[in-house]
């Protein structure tokens, strides 16, 4: 499938025609709604909150936030940011309840510190990986966005950003930028290895422990069904220094390393790593 | 744009990040509209500790509202006094700025507000 991110910037791509098409397509509406519900589930808010909708577009996800019934913790109040004026125009015509802001998320998040309980972003942050002019870089845009978002969330707050990464490299770049800004970051993939894979970046601010759960993503998904946790974080003791240099284990490790590099390595036998007998 | 949002917005210009004048933004030539929105008491109580009362007082005076009490009400007071809650709800949620400008006191940058949407796009040399 073609990626609009590759050809144009967000504010140019979503012109009046494209914005209308996007909002009236029932297929997109359904996908957006299911992703917004999933993001809300990950945010796990128990009482009415102030939420930032990053890349709110025509307010498809915001609608769900403001229509949430009280027994599920709603209705939330949201403030939406988007760079496309046409999208916001459609949002105005649809009479959404949240406040709208015409702003480029790559320029930062213009709210004072500790404003929001949570942030949600549906199919938006992959646009940050594009730079249209030579005076901005994807890295700069990503770091401005994540730094701004980090500051504007309250301690113990969460952000869930669903995005469409182009490749693994882009996924790494986005998560890396989030971690650098200070977030506890984790990726949740729904339907992995299929065409319909949905990637959610779950960000946590501060190491707040709520109801005995840790604040990071492993705490967030705890208790959810059908979620496999793959923790790639380095453990406290990294194993380095435990193997003595020159020992058999060290030699085996080196041989493996060389083999992986594609070098010719002598086969291992019972004599490997043994001391030679003194000849005289 | 709600007065509530205005209470959280600060100037987006890079040079203003360290200046204390960049918050709050001052409304200029503002056209106000009153909307009818259902009162959400729990939300207001949740939000109250985060609202900057001094900034809100300034904004309210600039928009031509009667002066607010100098001290912010406590959540308990708000819960007990329905009239207070209604007043706060009216100011924060129902009052909306439709047209006008938001001016930063530090750099003087004017953010235009049109049809209730504030324009926070900046030229790249200000980011």
Describe the structure.
The complex is a heterodimer of chains A (280) and B (127). Chain A is α/β, with parallel strands linked by helices and 280 residues long. Chain A is 34% helix and 17% strand. Chain A has 10 helices and 7 strands. Chain A has helices at 4-7, 10-13, 16-24, 26-43, 60-66, 85-93, 138-152, 168-180, 217-220, 248-260, and strands at residues 50-54, 77-82, 99-102, 116-122, 153-163, 184-190, 198-204. A 7-stranded mixed sheet of chain A has the order 3-2-1-4-5-7-6, sandwiched between helices. In chain A, α6 links the parallel β2 and β3 (99-102). In chain A, α3 (16-24) crosses α6 (85-93) and α7 crosses α8. The longest helix of chain A is centred in the N-terminal third of the chain and has 18 residues, at 26-43. Chain A is elongated. The termini of chain A are far apart. The model of chain A has no long low-confidence stretch (mean pLDDT 84). Chain B is of the alpha+beta class and 127 residues long. Chain B has one domain: Single Sheet (N-terminal domain of TfIIb). Chain B has helices at residues 3-6, 41-47, 53-62, 75-80, 82-94; strands at 26-34, 95-103, 110-114, 117-119. Chain B has a 4-stranded antiparallel sheet with strand order 1-2-3-4. Chain B is globular and about 50 Å long. The mean pLDDT of chain B is 87. The interface between A and B is medium-sized, with 32 and 29 residues. β3 (99-102) of chain A pairs parallel with β4 of chain B. Chain B: One of its GO terms (biological process) is tRNA methylation. Chain B: It is found in: Cytoplasm; Nucleus. Chain B: Belongs to the TRM112 family. Chain B: Pfam families: Trm112p (PF03966). Chain B: This is Multifunctional methyltransferase subunit trm112.
CATH class of chain B: Mainly Beta
How would the global form of chain B be characterised? globular
Radius of gyration of chain B: 15 Å
Largest sheet of chain B: 4 strands, antiparallel
What portion of residues of chain B is helical? 25-40%
User: Which pair of chains has the greatest number of interface residues, and how are they split between the two chains?
Assistant: A-B, 32 and 29 residues
Structure annotation, total helices of chain A: 10
Task: Compute the separation of the termini of chain A in Å.
Answer: 73 Å
Note the total helix count of chain B.
5
**CATH level 3 topology of chain B:** N-terminal domain of TfIIb
- Provide the gyration radius of chain A in Å: 24 Å
Structural class of chain B: alpha+beta
The share of residues in extended strands of chain A comes to: 15-25%
Low-confidence stretches of chain A: none
Query: Quick check: average pLDDT of chain B?
Result: 87
- Main sheet overview of chain A: 7 strands, mixed
Q: What is the tally of beta strands of chain B?
A: 4
Shape of chain A: elongated
Main location (chain B): cytoplasm
Protein name (chain B): Multifunctional methyltransferase subunit trm112
Family (chain B): Belongs to the TRM112 family.
GO biological process, one term (chain B): rRNA (guanine-N7)-methylation
